[in-house]
Amino acid sequence: MKVLKSLIFLFTIATIFTLVAHKSFAASAQLSPYSWDPGLYATTSTYGSTVHAWGMRQTQGAWGTGPVNYQSGATTTYRGSSSGTLSVDLKGTYCPNGVCSYGSGTGYKGLVQFWNDPKNYIAFGFIHDPGVSPNGITIMVEGAANGVPVGGYWPGGAITGTSHHLQVTWTSSGISVTIDNQVTLGVYPVLENNPSISFLAAARETGDICDTTFTGISFTPGSVVPNPVVVPAGNPYFTYTDTITESGSGTGYSAYINAHDAYNNAISVGIQTDSTSASSHGQPYYAWERVQNGVFTYEYLAQASNSPTNVELAWWPQDSTAVFYVNGTPIADVTVSLSPRLFFNIEGNARANGDTVNDTFGPTNITVGDCPNTCGLNGAWNTSSFNFYGLSATNTNGDTQNGATFTVQGTVSGLASGQDWNTNEVAGIGMIAQYWYGQ
Questions:
Q1: Would the CA dihedral through 8, 80, 44, 180 be positive or negative?
Q2: Which of 123, 170, 176, 375 could be bridged to 369 by S-S, CB 3.0 to 4.6 A?
Q3: Does this model's pTM top 0.85?
Q4: How far is the C-alpha of 71 from the C-alpha of 203, rounded, in Å?
């Protein structure tokens, strides 16, 4: 997510107190939870109608002075269409002594953000901040329209209580919000022809607590639509095709193909099953995972199966874009930068002690590089050096490069209490390198 730029404008409006009955909408949206801080968390409900974002911030630096390392929440898997309406309730759910608030400490906020592009974005919500509302919460609108700041902060105490209803209506040329069915703010002239929509809680400084639950999330039909996949022009630097079968037992298992460099950058595509996931709820899902400069992000895409599936990963360096294909059809494009020399993996995972994986891969086919100096593969697949916690990769047909087939099997053991694949590399991996000037 991007840093929300802000500019303070003080407006005078009537104080808003109560949450009243509101209109119900028919459509929900799949949501992907995430966090930018190890002390902040987010979960979503089965059908995307609820998000809980909460925790105590561990990173340093006041919000607005550096990267967006101060928030957690969930974003719609698909982007918004060129017009629509969202209905949602924001509830402060930090209740240590039975009296609830949106958080505690020097600053906290709960917000709904519409991000169209770096020059057109807006967030509606409620904020406590020493500069704009030191003794409670107030209304905030933070954003930009074609790069020009819009919105602002109402005087401290302009709103009270910890349960408020927002109804956001947008078109390609503007967006407005109605609070508690009483006051409408906007229309703000923010381009919103294809926004991502996020439900977020944020903490201002180290040790501050934020805690917002978003309930009743619903959209008018057609408000959120699948993203169009953009395939760059020209030939990719590499293509990696494989037929994978994801299988296992227990709380979680997965099968991925992966390309990475030696500088903490990687892109993986495949199928994952995770009964603890707020997005997939134990069903197999197509997913991508990305590491960029050491920062991990991921997205669930669509429900998959445990049957053999042809997957392909291709990458265009000039566009910093990877495309994920399933059975020849592109299902996602992902922004990622890699620095060749590249390395390629088959990888099977299981989540926790006692979980099993029983994946198959192959035949593999990788085309990569610029001939003659960096074209093709070097050496043979290594299936012995990257096996962890009881899982192991095996080359089942003995082919050393393209055409090789594999299994990844095993039962997870040896993880410490409370650890799983989110804290450790729990995997069986086969790896091969790009040919690089004779090596």
A1: positive
A2: 375
A3: no
A4: 6
pLDDT tens digit sequence for 353-397: 999 999 999 999 999 999 999 999 999 999 999 999 999 999 999
- List, for residues 152-172, the tens digit of each pLDDT value: 999 988 899 999 999 999 999
* Res 17: pLDDT: 27
Q: What is the DSSP string of 261-324?
A: -SSS-EEEEEEEEETT-TTTTTS-EEEEEEEETTEEEEEEEEE--SS-EEEEEEEEGGGTEEEE
**Residue range(s) defining the domain that contains residue 374:** 238-434
Same domain, 321 and 188: no
From the centroid of its chain, how far is CA 125? 21
Neighbouring-strand partners of residue 210: 55, 103
Contact between 409 and 428 (Cβ < 8 Å): yes
Strands (E), 306-437: 309-316, 321-326, 329-335, 343-350, 356-361, 365-368, 377-382, 391-395, 406-411, 427-434
Question: Degrees (nearest 5) of the Cα angle 372, 375, 376?
Answer: 140
Are 166 and 313 part of one and the same domain?
Answer: no
State whether 213 and 248 are in the same domain: no
Q: Which residues pair with 302 in a beta bridge?
A: 286
Tokens of 288: 């991508």
Name the DSSP class of 110.
Answer: E
